[in-house]
Write a sequence for this structure.
């Protein structure tokens, strides 16, 4: 399978390392033999029809800051043209999430699918803003669109709901979908006020450039939209979510709840056709009442009861392993 | 698909009701059209090559205590002969678990597979005592053996580990695998001593005939064996598990742990090739530290971190829905 990688940040580099360390495994266990025939980052591109040397690609990024340094004689490529012309079956779209415009992810994904390429993305922007039309475009062009890494990082939340509960109907679900806000709220439980907890999250690398997306609940809302479309067959976008973030949560609220055996958590909820993201009180004994950066979702099913899945919701290697899962999934789907 | 049902207790009757209420669904969504052509309980049998009327079958059981009352003119069938001769593709084996002899489950399963029938079972006995040889027999006869309902009731623990984590390696796992003991230990947390907690469990219907299997850790060990074989590719039986139950757990132990922010739980653990079932202290913040009759398992994977799944580990309808899941799974496997 020939891959075109767009974006070579933490997830992209983790993926390259996983492909290097696991190539024998992937072929033996799943019949997957991936070759990266092109890789693009914000400063340049590297192309090789026989497959890029991933060690050399990582070294170029490390030493000179861009994959463009892989082969200095290469000409500059216009990205959309590269996508359309690349001799690749699968485009792996790893550009950063933008929940206002969805770009550059949306243009990349659309160009890929229109030129007959399957897409794996970890970018929540395009899906949060236009899930229904992207799926329609994928179907129209008879290609697969996969996005395991957008929800739960390496924890297979989407896969669990879609596959493991087959034969049952999911009636509703709710969960902690954002690790940064959960970290901040967990710190507030320990007595930090909001600003101190936020600083601590920054210090530990959990809140970065996009921290407003976290705090204001937009990241959780984007994930909720992806889940509602994929799991519940709803046709919704982020505009359909009623969102409130955690910036108004006071230390006194957290303390009052704590006295009643409860914690305040930022919960994304899909119930009776309604989508909400808001701070809610959860009993300490509720299985989704987890701390630190953990994510947790409870699915309520019609026949088999409630099922909860908990895991780290982020991280380069876990998210890259979700991309691998999608790769295997697409390969299996093509064999059917 | 023609089914032979062996055992018509809580799970069997729940399955009959699910088949009645969901037949249109099952056909529309999964292409499955199940007909029960024979049903056997401890007092009699009912057979119909065109498919039993499940309403009438449930009524016979309800009013006269046995499916033998379905058709009074039917002759008595010798069970093994019935299995061998039945014009059924799938045998659903729902007899009670016996961890000493594995019977009557083992004989039923062996006869089914030898006569070319796929088997779905919720009976832990045969699998705990002879998993490796039963899988070998299934492969030799080119039939499927499925057992989702043996671990986690309706919670798809086996499916999750086997499917949702594909592309990753599970290194170890540990969890609360028995709801009865978890209920008792949760009650002890609330200040009941062991005997009072046990009586309370009985009163609430959580500890019945097989309660010694629960208390002494054998039920958890049986599930651990099934998971170790299926998920970790180990070739083990219940003899390979180092087992200690909860009857020696004192209220004072529970109180001492509680002061340190910990709970005592009966944990099944598979790590470094070792299988253990024993009471262990867990931090209250550990995701598997759940209360009541809940089950919970954490899988540690090589690339995507730790994943926890939590759900009700038992119940007629949930377990019957696990049987349905297996039915769909076998149908899909046959189509490949």
């Amino acid at each position: 399978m020939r891959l075109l990688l767009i974006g070579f940040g933490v997830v992209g580099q983790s993926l390259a390392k996983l492909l290097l360390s696991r190539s024998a495994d992937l072929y033996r266990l799943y019949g997957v033999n991936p070759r990266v025939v092109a890789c693009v980052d914000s400063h340049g591109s590297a192309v090789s029809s026989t497959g890029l040397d991933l060690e050399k690609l990582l070294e170029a990024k490390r030493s000179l800051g861009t994959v463009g340094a892989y082969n200095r004689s290469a000409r500059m490529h216009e990205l959309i043209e590269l996508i359309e012309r690349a001799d690749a079956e699968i485009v792996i779209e790893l550009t950063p999430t933008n929940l206002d415009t969805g770009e550059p992810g949306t243009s990349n994904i659309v160009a890929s699918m229109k030129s007959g390429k399957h897409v794996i993305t970890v970018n929540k922007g395009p899906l949060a803003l236009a899930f229904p039309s992207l799926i329609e475009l994928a179907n129209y062009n008879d290609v697969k669109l996969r996005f395991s890494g957008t929800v739960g990082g390496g924890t297979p939340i989407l896969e669990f709901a879609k596959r493991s509960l087959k034969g049952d109907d999911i009636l509703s679900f709710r969960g902690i979908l954002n690790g940064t806000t959960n970290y901040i709220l967990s710190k507030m439980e320990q007595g930090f006020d909001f600003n101190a907890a936020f600083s601590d999250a920054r210090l530990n690398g959990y809140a970065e450039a996009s921290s407003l997306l976290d705090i204001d609940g937009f990241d959780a809302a984007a994930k909720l939209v992806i889940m509602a479309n994929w799991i519940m067959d709803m046709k919704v976008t982020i505009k359909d979510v009623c969102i409130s973030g955690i910036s108004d949560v006071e230390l006194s609220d957290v303390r009052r709840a704590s006295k009643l055996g409860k914690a305040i958590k930022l919960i994304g909820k899909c119930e009776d056709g309604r989508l909400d993201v808001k701070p809610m009180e959860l009993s300490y004994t509720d299985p989704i009442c987890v701390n630190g950066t953990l994510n947790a979702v409870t699915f309520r099913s019609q026949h088999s009861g409630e099922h909860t899945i908990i895991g780290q919701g982020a991280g380069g290697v876990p998210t890259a392993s979700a991309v691998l899962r999608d790769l295997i999934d697409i390969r299996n789907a093509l064999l059917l």
